[in-house]
Design a protein that fits this description.
The complex is a heterodimer of chains A (163) and B (194). Chain A has four helices and six strands, in the order βαββαβββαα. Chain A has helices at residues 10-27, 53-73, 112-138, 155-161; strands at 5-8, 31-36, 41-46, 81-85, 90-96, 100-106. In chain A, a hairpin with a 4-residue loop joins strand 4 (81-85) and strand 5. In chain A, helix 1 runs antiparallel to helix 3. Chain A is globular. The mean pLDDT of chain B is 94. The chains are: A alpha+beta (163), B alpha/beta (194).
C-alpha cells in the first residue's frame, strides 16, 4: 500500500475554523476540536488557553481507537460517539467521515442533549470537507497539489535540524 | 501518514518505538524528554499500570526546527511490550511514519526479541504497511549488561535488511539520541521522495 500524507491547505483550515466556531456557539460549548484519527490536531476554537492541543488530540484519538477495538470485540462495526462525563466538564467525541474526530468540551452551561443535537447538525458539512481533503491528499499529483514542501530537501537541511 | 498543515506551516510525523516488554522503549522516551529543551518538547504522557508498565502508550511530541518555513514536529509513541497487549500495539501503529525496534541484548530475551519482530511485521501488514519499505531503525539496548549477547549474534537474529543498527544503554542516554536522529533522517528522506 502506498503511504500517503494528509495535507491541510489554508482554505481548508479556514472552513474548519468557521464551522467549529458555529458549532461552539450553537452548542454553548467551552471549546471544539477537530483532529485526524491518528491524533494529529487539525483545528480548534474556544477557550483553549488551558489546553495542550497536541496531548489532547493524541489521547482522544487513542480513546476512540480503543473504543473501536471494543466495538469489534462485541460484534459492532463501530461506536461512533463517546461521552466522558466529569463533575463540571464533559467531553463528547464523534467520528467525522470515518477519517476525523470531533471533540466538544462543555460544562454546566450546556447539556449532553444540546451538544448531541448540534454535533449531528454540524457533522455532514464537516464531513464533506474532510472527505475532500482526504481525496485530494490521496491523489495529490492529479490535483496539482505540491506533494510535500520537502521535495528539494537536502542532507544538509537535515543535519542543520540536529544542530 | 505524515500530516502537512499549510495553515499552521507544520509537518507532523509519527514515530513508534516497538519491542519486547522491559526492553527500554519507555526509558528511551524518558531520556529524550529529560534532555530536550523545554521549548522544543510537549508534555510526556504515559498510560501505565500501577507498576509502571506501559498499558497503552507513552507519547512525547518534540519539535526540531524549521525546514523551508515549516516547523518539523515528531510525535514519539511507545507500544506496550507485554505479549497480551497486542490489540493496543496494532492500534498505535496506525498512521506510523517510522519505527524504532528496541531490542533487549540479554541472552534470556533472545526469543522475546525474535517474537516481537515477527509481531511487528504482522501488525504492520495488518495496517497495510511493509517493514521492507517503512523507515526502520534497530536499536540494541542494554549493551552494558553482563548477559548481553554479541552484536553480531543480535544482528543475525533481528536485522531485517540494511537498516541502521545502533547500540544503546538507554538509562544512561547512550545511543538514545543517535537512534532518534537515525529514524528522523530516514523519515524525512522518505517524505522527500513521496
Amino acid at each position: 500500500m502506498a503511504r500517503t500524507n494528509l495535507v491541510i491547505l489554508e482554505q481548508d483550515y479556514e472552513h474548519f475554523v468557521a464551522m467549529l466556531e458555529q458549532l461552539r456557539t450553537d452548542a454553548n460549548a467551552r471549546f471544539v476540536f477537530l483532529m485526524d484519527r491518528n491524533g494529529q490536531h487539525i483545528a480548534g476554537v474556544g477557550d483553549l488557553a488551558s489546553v495542550d492541543p497536541t496531548a489532547l488530540a493524541s489521547l482522544a484519538a487513542g480513546s476512540v481507537a480503543a473504543t473501536e477495538g471494543l466495538a469489534g470485540l462485541v460484534g459492532e462495526q463501530a461506536f461512533t460517539t463517546l461521552f466522558h462525563e466529569g463533575r463540571s466538564d464533559s467531553l463528547h467525541l464523534s467520528t467525522v467521515a470515518d477519517k476525523a474526530i470531533l471533540l466538544v468540551s462543555f460544562d454546566e452551561r450546556s447539556s449532553l442533549g444540546l451538544v448531541r443535537l448540534r454535533v449531528q447538525q454540524s457533522t455532514p458539512p464537516l464531513a464533506e470537507i474532510v472527505t475532500e481533503v482526504v481525496r485530494r491528499s490521496d491523489a495529490p499529483r492529479a490535483e496539482g497539489l505540491t506533494v510535500t514542501p520537502l521535495g528539494d530537501l537536502t542532507d544538509a537541511d537535515i543535519d542543520r535540524l540536529f544542530g | 501518514m505524515t500530516f502537512i498543515n499549510y495553515a499552521a506551516r507544520e509537518i507532523n510525523c509519527k514515530i513508534v518505538y516497538y519491542g519486547p516488554g522491559l526492553g527500554g522503549k519507555t526509558t528511551n522516551i524518558q531520556w529524550i524528554h529529560e534532555k530536550t529543551r523545554p521549548d522544543s518538547k510537549g508534555k510526556l504522557i504515559s498510560l501505565a499500570t500501577e507498576t509502571d508498565r506501559t498499558l497503552f502508550f507513552d507519547f512525547l511530541p518534540i519539535e526540531l526546527g524549521t525546514i523551508r518555513g515549516f516547523r518539523t514536529r515528531f510525535h514519539l509513541y511507545t507500544v506496550p511490550g507485554q505479549v497480551f497487549y497486542d490489540a493496543s500495539r496494532k492500534l498505535i501503529l496506525k498512521g506510523v511514519d517510522g519505527v524504532v525496534f528496541v531490542a533487549d541484548s540479554q541472552e534470556m530475551r533472545r526469543d522475546a526479541n525474535v517474537e516481537s519482530v515477527e509481531n511487528l511485521k504482522t501488525n504492520l501488514r495488518d495496517n497495510g504497511y511493509d517493514l521492507a519499505t517503512l523507515p526502520y531503525v534497530l536499536q540494541l539496548n542494554k549493551r552494558d549488561l553482563p548477559a548481553a549477547l554479541p552484536v553480531k549474534r543480535l544482528v543475525t537474529d533481528l536485522r531485517i535488511q540494511n537498516e541502521p543498527t545502533l547500540e544503546a544503554v538507554a538509562p544512561k542516554g547512550v545511543g538514545v539520541f543517535d537512534t532518534l536522529k537515525a529514524i528522523i533522517r530516514l523519515v524525512l528522506n522518505d517524505l522527500r521522495r513521496r
